[in-house]
Structure formats: structure tokens, C-alpha cells
Specification:
The structure is a homodimer.
Chain A lengths: L1 E5 L3 H13 L4 E6 L2 H11 L3 E4 L8 H10 L5 E6 L4 H9 L4 E4 L5 H11 L4 E2 L1 H6 L9 H11 L4 H8 L3 H14 L5 H10 L5
Helix pairs in contact in A: 2-3, 7-9, 7-10, 8-9
Chain A binds a DNA duplex through helix 7 and helix 9.
Amino acid sequence: MKVIVAEDQGMLRGALSALLDLEDDIEVVGQAENGKQALALIQELVPDLCVMDIEMPEMSGLDVAEKLKEQRHSCRVVILTTFSRSGYFQRAMKAGVRGFLLKDSPIDELGAALRTVHAGGRAVSPELAMTFWETENPLTEREQEVLKLAAAGLTAGDIAKQLFLSAGTVRNYLSEAIQKLEAKNRIDAIGIAEKNGWLS
Amino acid sequence: MKVIVAEDQGMLRGALSALLDLEDDIEVVGQAENGKQALALIQELVPDLCVMDIEMPEMSGLDVAEKLKEQRHSCRVVILTTFSRSGYFQRAMKAGVRGFLLKDSPIDELGAALRTVHAGGRAVSPELAMTFWETENPLTEREQEVLKLAAAGLTAGDIAKQLFLSAGTVRNYLSEAIQKLEAKNRIDAIGIAEKNGWLS
DNA sequence: CCTTTCACATGACATATGTCATATGAAAAG
DNA sequence: CTTTTCATATGACATATGTCATGTGAAAGG
């Protein structure tokens, strides 16, 4: 089967590609270091499978997966990521992703997952099963938006200007976020939200 | 040469070990997923080299390198890390580390680096050279300490209690940190300090 | 020995932040 | 057609945060 490896960290990308290519039934036909490159390569080379990281520059692995689904492209996607966040997982499933592995898994699982997916099956890291039970994002869009800007170091006033709101409104959203997350202050709230992957 | 691979991320650890083991002149005699394990394995197996991540649970790769230097252990260390921070690099040099590679480097560099170091040389990613010029940490110990606690989401009052200071003193340290880092507020300061690796 | 420097420490004051009561409009439930 | 619910939006108020003037003691340089 023809495979493309998309992963921004050079060492891991190279190592995985080399290792997969050693397998008799796997041929690594291309490597990409960001989402855009991956999409272009997939359209050009039409591989059977693509091993894809989520957090990459230019375009995330999930963006690529969604584009492929939109185009009804035959290439099947196996996500390989550090984070077991319910948001990622659910979005991946919606995008028709066939495999979802954690970078913490042993290396053997990757080859096995590729074969399973190529044969028409699905492959999901056992740790991910738990993810279903994870609490979902309690923040409204506005609250997320405001908290994200606060996380970037902006003051309430700055945020208000950027979103065309009054400063009081911004503080209120932050206050709501703080209460929903049972945080002590906005810094605490930012930490909690980031840990759960609730900021975008 | 006998090599140990210490890296907490399972996939990368497995892939690197497998690939290195394929080389005729390299034998991977052990793998560790944290610093403590790495140290124990090195003392038990006495390898020629150890490929080591910095950010690992239990004990960082730099901690291990320092312990080895202290014991005048013959095992030479090659650091493999995501971050090109001057603090890391300088600490590594002090600990007598012989190689310092970024995880963004191509995979071939690792094998090459191992051979160079085994032959008595040094191997440093070219990106790291710049690191020398990086600005050093402008924060005093107290300021770092306070900023770190603030980053964890504590209020000034909490921090004061924990460090047996008055709340005003804590706010003053934070204010100094904010000014030194030319930040807008403590959140901004935390971001800047973290980006530069200035929070220990 | 005296000055300079600098990390450390504090409180007074102005500003920013967090909370609460309140209001509107849109969508869902009755 | 109501009623309920909920995201959105605001301002008044109390609290937390950021700044500044000031002071101490220890180390470095004259």
C-alpha cells in the first residue's frame, strides 16, 4: 500500500517514514511537514493512506481530513497525535478518519493500524475510548473568544476594542468563564481551558 | 557501540531505537521512558552513549547528565530536544554533554552525531549556535519564583502566604517582572517568560 | 571606610479585574 | 401565542492587580 507521512517534527517524520518503508507491504511515497503540503501531495500521488499529525503549521491534520472528505477522496486518514482530547477525536470521527493513534503508543501499533485501516477497518488507541466520557466544553463561543485573547496577554480593554464590545462585557465573559471552570482568576481559567483543549 | 534511548514519547522512542539498531555499528541495548529509568539503565548496562530527551517525567535529561558527570561515568550523552533554549543548551554544556540535536533535524543527523561523539567529537545542531546570542534571563530568583506561581493560577494573596511575604511584596515582584519583560500584565509576562524558557 | 549597586521587602495609591443585577432578542418548549 | 431558556450585552460596585516611593542589608569597588 502507498502511504504518505505528514508530521511537522523532522526527526519523527523521518524515523516513521524509514521504518514503515522497511515493511514489505508498505511503501512511503511522500512526506509532508505541514497540512498544505500533505493535501497537495495526496492529490498529486493518490496514496491509499495518510499518517497525519494534528498540530501542524499552515493547516491542521483535521482540516486536511475534512477537505479530503469533502472531495470524496479515496485516501484514508490515520491521525497520529500527542493529545487525547475529546474535541479532536470527535472532529476526526466526523471527518471520516479511520484511525486515531496517540504518539505515546508503541511503534508496532502504527503498522498494525495501517493494515487494519487499509483492509477497511478502523483503528483507535484504547486510551481514546475514555475520551467519550470527557466533559464537553462548557464555554460559549464568545467566552472562548475572549478567553483566548486574554491568554495572549491582552487586557480587558484591548479585547473590548478588538471585538467591538464594552470593557464591562468583556469582563463579564471572563467572569462567567472563571465561574464555569471553577477557577480562581483568569490565569487559572486559561490553564484549565488549555488543559482540556477548550480554546479553539 | 552500545546505546540507550531515553525519550518519553513512545512512538518516537520505538522508532529511533528500531532505526538505530538497524545500523551495523550501533546496538540499542536499552530504552527508558523517564530520567530515573535512564539513569538506572546506564548504571546497569554501561553503554557507550545515551540519546536523551530533556523534558521527561521523574527526572529531566539534564538532571541525568549532571548526575553522570558527578559520577564521572564513561557514558557520553547526546541530548535530543524540541526546544532551542539558551538555558537548556548552556546547562547541557556545563554538564559535559557531547551532542545537542533538535527534534526538528533530519533523522540522518542522529546517526552521524552518535558516530562523531563516539569518536570523541562533539555534535551540535547548527540552529543551536544562535542560542549563544540569546538574551539571558533578566528576572531575579524571587521574580521567577513568584511568576511561576502566578502562572499556576494563584492570586497574589495565595503566593504571599506560600512564600511568607506580604501581598504588596508579591505584587511588586510581579510588577518588576512585567516591566523587565515589557509586558502588558502578568499574563503577558508569563507568556514571554515561558517562550524564552525563563521559568526554570 | 565609604560609596555604589542590587536583590529583597513593604505600604499607599491608581487602575484593572471579577461579580452581580439587569436587559434584550432569538430559539426551543409548552 | 405564550413561556422558558440561553447567548449576548451593559454598568455599578467590591476586590485584586500594577506602580511607585521608600527602606534594608549584603557584596563589590573605590
